[in-house]
């Protein structure tokens, strides 16, 4: 049976008695197809087939390649897939027809409706996708060199922050009589006092904390380890969470989901904790609503001049 027949609703209904409507099973099937495509077990036709989204299958294969060969995080894998899927409408269904002019024009068109930061991420995703296609012999090599560079200057914009009094209101908004509130209180303190990234908090493990020395090991984007002092209130909040609120589990990460299955928090969940805390604190005019808001607020407060006593 062909892949197109297997993926069609009629074939599924014939084999199982009814169409598969459970999204997780569909996603697993797509990942499996991507695995088969990468290893050459099945091939994808460039002809349009009814009921078959060749773009989607190609994206699944690309994401499988990223996981296996590029070593990037799952969140980045999913983001690259979304970005490339958006660009495929302009590139067309057949990679063998791609050329430098088409690749460049697609990015220039996207620049008219995307922010600079979003466009920069999109060019990174497309560059990886074209390299993947070239390694599979699906397009001419070197097309990634045709992607225009997106200029982005450091310190070209002011940081987005809120005042220290508002930060304190955000941290105090947690209901520390509940397990989720105890967890969120510790998370917000780490962001507000140490200026950590959301990924730093979500990946934090017990072994990263030296309780005797009162320090915390943080691995930044470049995976370079640095030791930060652990403030007293932050350390106490983490201990309260470990003793009173953390669900039992074998995960190395400190912060887990409150609802089973108790997996480690994702970076996006950390940002959601900040967003909900802003709502509880009644701060409606925040310039942004993610974890970076507290990071930038911490950095801004550290640069403020100390009060002068006369």
UniProtKB/TrEMBL annotation:
Core-binding (CB) domain sequence ranges: 56-134
Entries under Pfam families matching the protein: Phage_integrase
Location of the Tyr recombinase domain: 157-310
GO biological process, one term: DNA integration
Protein's name according to its UniProt entry: Putative integrase/recombinase
TM helices/strands, residue ranges: none
An MF annotation (GO) of this entry: DNA binding
């Amino acid at each position: 049976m062909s892949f197109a027949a297997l993926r069609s609703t009629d074939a599924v209904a014939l084999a199982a008695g009814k169409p598969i409507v459970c999204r997780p099973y569909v996603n697993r099937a797509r990942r499996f197809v991507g695995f088969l495509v990468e290893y050459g077990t099945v091939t994808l036709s460039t002809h349009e087939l009814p009921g078959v989204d060749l773009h989607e299958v190609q994206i699944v294969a690309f994401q499988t390649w990223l996981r296996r060969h590029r070593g990037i995080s799952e969140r980045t894998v999913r983001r690259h897939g979304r970005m490339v899927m958006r660009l495929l409408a302009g590139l067309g269904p057949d990679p063998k027809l791609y050329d430098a002019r088409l690749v460049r024009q697609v990015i220039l068109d996207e620049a008219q409706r995307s922010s600079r930061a979003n466009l920069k991420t999109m060019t990174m995703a497309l560059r990886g996708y074209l390299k993947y296609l070239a390694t599979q012999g699906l397009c001419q090599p070197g097309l990634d060199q045709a992607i225009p560079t997106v200029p982005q200057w450091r310190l070209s914009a002011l940081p987005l922050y809120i005042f220290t009094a508002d930060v304190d209101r955000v941290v105090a908004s947690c209901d520390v009589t509940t397990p989720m509130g105890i967890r969120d209180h510790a998370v917000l303190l780490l962001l507000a006092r140490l200026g950590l990234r959301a990924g730093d908090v979500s990946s934090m493990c017990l072994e990263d904390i030296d309780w005797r020395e009162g320090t915390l090991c943080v691995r930044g984007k470049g995976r370079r380890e640095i030791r930060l002092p652990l403030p007293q209130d932050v350390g106490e909040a983490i201990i309260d969470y470990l003793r009173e609120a953390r669900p039992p589990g074998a995960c190395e990460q400190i912060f887990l989901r409150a609802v089973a299955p108790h997996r480690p928090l994702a970076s996006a969940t950390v940002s959601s904790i900040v967003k909900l805390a802003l709502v509880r604190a009644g701060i409606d005019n925040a310039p942004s609503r993610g974890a970076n808001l507290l990071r930038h607020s911490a950095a801004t407060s550290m640069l403020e001049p100390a009060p002068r006593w006369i």
